Amino acid sequence: MKASARLVVERDSAGRSVVRELRSMSPLTLVPRRSLLANATGPALVHLVSSATAPLGGDDLELSVLVGPGAHLRLHGVAATLALPGHRPGGSRMTLHLQVADGGRLEYLPEPTVVTARADHHAELCADLAGDARLRCREVLVLGRSGERPGRLRSDIRLTRDGDPLLRQRLDVGDPTLDSTPAHLAGHRVLATELLVWGADPAEPVSGDWWSLAPLARGGSLATVLADDTVAADRMLRTALAAHPGLDKAEAGTADGVTRVAGIA
Amino acid sequence: MDVLEVTGAAAVLSLADSRFPGGGHVHSGGLEEAVARGLATDERQLASFLYGRLRTAGELAAVFAAAATHAARQRADRKTWIELDVELDARTPSPAQREASRAQGRGTARAGRAAWPNPVLDDLLAVTPRPHHPVTVGALVGIAGGTPRQAALSVTYLSVSGPASAAVRLLGLDPFGVNAVVVSLSPEMERIAAEAAEQAELPATELPAPNAPALDLFAEAHDRIHREEVRLFAS
């Protein structure tokens, strides 16, 4: 299956973030969830729903998201993504292009991706920010369903601001020899990362045994967590995010009973 | 091509020598933290740690060293050195690892300036007085007449030889056994170096960016604990 979806959010003359363009293409279905009663100046809320079993081997999916000057978009997933093997060779591919204009804000908080047995998936994220645009981008990878050996997944992240590279990473999981080494995943089943270009970065890195929040060299910061299950990953990711000076308690998921870190439970 | 059959071979041997005065001996590449957590306590676990390090940090060092050698051989302008510096920073999210790389790059550049004085090295150091280690090694190999593949092989070897000798000091492992573990990784080192050399002419933005989450976490934890209690190694 080859699919390309597109979402454009802009700020209107009244200061509201509105969805200007929304083009779904199965299996990438975009569902705007903005309530009429919501705070008029709050973010536009869109859910990304998979309307078919995807990604399967042979799938090539692409989602482009543009956030205009001063606009705010929160893009959520509603269910875990299962990377599955398909009948066609060549693996599956999901490419996400994010563009945020000066003064715009984009939160991309999908549910975890589970790398099932014999999957061969390539996830690519390209994000371009302009000026003081803000971005939060989470990725939670689960190696196999319970008791299952994972297939292969390659994740590529490329983040630039005004053309300057802030973060470039390639992560390969599902190679049993590499996953088990103490240097790579040290035998953990869940890897959670959150990339933040969201106001001030921490002046110093903050870390625990299996999590860290590290300021990048040229702006932005990266939270990294290795855990044995998604509950522990959720807890450590919240701890890491709580140390980020740009996030308030609700945004970090540490306000009592209000917000959990979406996507992981 | 045999690694010793072109000019620059002695430079390559010198740069990969543990006695090269670049300050590499104070770094364990995350091994001390792995040892402190009980994750690398015997030869078998050490072999696994080194293999994971080679496939990630080793590959990253290899592609930047190879690209720097190519740049030095082309008498690259300062813009090229800035691009390599910025792109390697973007591929090193851990501040502790950036610091370890720049500390060793600085030490290597000082020793290199005495051994291979050259305007190309002056240009690199004008861009940053503390260049990343693989970029520095790559530039020096290029200045000495060596090839991208030689530079890649040097840093690939260093990515495991440093932690291996740290293991002997931290764990009291049998030096013969540890040396045999390093040698057993030779085919993988040579494969990574050859692939890095093939990509040496790519623009810096397109160079591979392999990452190792556990090494990032070890580097940060080591740095945090190092401030509170004495550790044998700086990283």
Automatic annotation (TrEMBL), chain A:
UniProt record similarity statement: Belongs to the UreD family.
Domain of life: Bacteria
Gene Ontology cellular-component annotations: cytoplasm
Organism the protein comes from: Longimycelium tulufanense
Record protein name field: Urease accessory protein UreD
Keywords: Chaperone, Cytoplasm, Nickel insertion
Function noted in UniProt: Required for maturation of urease via the functional incorporation of the urease nickel metallocenter.
Subcellular location(s) per record: Cytoplasm
Molecular function terms from GO: nickel cation binding
InterPro entries listed in its UniProt record: UreD (IPR002669)
Self-association and partners: UreD, UreF and UreG form a complex that acts as a GTP-hydrolysis-dependent molecular chaperone, activating the urease apoprotein by helping to assemble the nickel containing metallocenter of UreC. The UreE protein probably delivers the nickel.
From TrEMBL, chain B:
Entries under Pfam families matching the protein: UreF (PF01730)
Region (Disordered): 92-113
UniProt xrefs under Gene3D superfamilies: Urease accessory protein UreF (1.10.4190.10)
Composition bias, Low complexity: 102-113
InterPro entries: UreF, UreF_sf
GO molecular function ontology, one term from the record: nickel cation binding
Keywords: Chaperone, Nickel insertion
Protein known as: Urease accessory protein UreF
Annotated source species: Longimycelium tulufanense
